[in-house]
Design a protein that fits this description.
This protein has about 180 residues and is an alpha/beta fold. Helix content is about 20%, strand content about 30%. It has helices spanning about 25-40, 55-60, 90-100, 110-120, and strands at about 5-10, 15, 45-50, 70-75, 85-90, 105-110, 125-130, 140, 150-155, 165, 170-179. Strands 1, 3, 4, 5, 6, 7, 9, 10 and 11 form a nine-stranded mixed sheet that branches. Strands 2-8 form a two-stranded antiparallel sheet. The longest helix has 12 residues, at about 25-40. It is globular. About 30% of the residues are buried.
Length: about 180
C-alpha cells in the first residue's frame, strides 16, 4: 500500500488558510515545498500531488499545474480534469490511479478535508508540518495530530531542523509518522 506524504503549514491554532489563500507569505517554506515535492531518488520517476478542487483554484493560474509533478485534483462535482491534471472523485481513487502510473512519492497538499481523509485513512502516512509560531486569522484548519495516531520522528537528512525567521515569523519543520 503506497505511503501518503502530507505537506502542510499551520499556525498556532492549526489554521492553514483564510478565504482560499495562505494567511502568510514565507518564501523559504514555499521553496521547501517545491524541493520536497519534486525530489525523487529515481530520475526516471515523478512525484504526484493530490489536492482538493479548492486548493487547485487557490494556486495562482500561472503556477498551475505544478510543474514536474503529476497533479491530481479531487472533486465529486467537476466533470472534466483541469488542463494538465488528472481528476479523481476520491482519495482512494486518486491513489489507485497513481499506482498505475508508477510514481515515486505521493504528496497530499490540501485542503483540510483531504488532509483529514489521508490522516484517518488506511494508507501509511507521513506528515511534513511547517509549524508557524504565530497567530493568524484563519477559516480553514488542519485536523489535530494526536499522539494516538502519529508520533514525531527525527527529521530526515533532506528536511532542515533549524528554526527559521522570515518576515518576523518564526517557524520550523516537524515530521510525524502514522502509528
Amino acid at each position: 500500500m503506497p505511503k501518503l506524504n502530507i505537506i502542510v503549514a499551520a499556525c498556532n491554532n492549526n489554521g492553514i488558510g483564510i478565504e482560499g489563500r495562505l494567511p502568510w507569505r514565507l518564501k523559504s517554506d514555499m521553496s521547501f515545498f517545491k524541493q520536497i515535492t519534486l525530489r525523487t531518488q529515481d530520475a526516471e520517476k515523478k512525484n504526484a500531488v493530490i489536492m482538493g478542487k479548492n486548493t487547485w483554484f487557490s494556486i495562482p493560474s500561472k503556477f498551475r499545474p505544478l510543474v514536474g509533478r503529476i497533479n491530481v485534483v479531487l472533486s465529486t462535482q467537476m466533470t472534466d480534469a483541469p488542463e494538465g491534471t488528472q481528476l479523481a472523485k476520491s482519495l482512494n481513487q486518486a491513489v489507485s490511479l497513481l499506482e498505475s502510473l508508477n510514481v515515486e512519492n505521493i504528496f497530499v497538499i490540501g485542503g483540510s478535508t483531504v488532509y483529514k481523509q489521508a490522516m484517518e485513512g488506511e494508507h501509511p502516512c507521513r506528515i511534513y508540518l511547517t509549524r508557524i509560531a504565530a497567530d493568524f486569522l484563519c477559516d480553514t484548519f488542519l485536523p489535530d495530530i494526536t499522539d494516538k495516531q502519529f508520533k514525531q520522528i527525527p527529521n530526515p537528512p533532506y528536511v532542515p531542523d533549524n528554526v527559521f525567521d522570515e518576515n518576523g515569523i518564526k517557524y520550523s519543520i516537524q515530521v510525524y509518522e502514522k502509528i
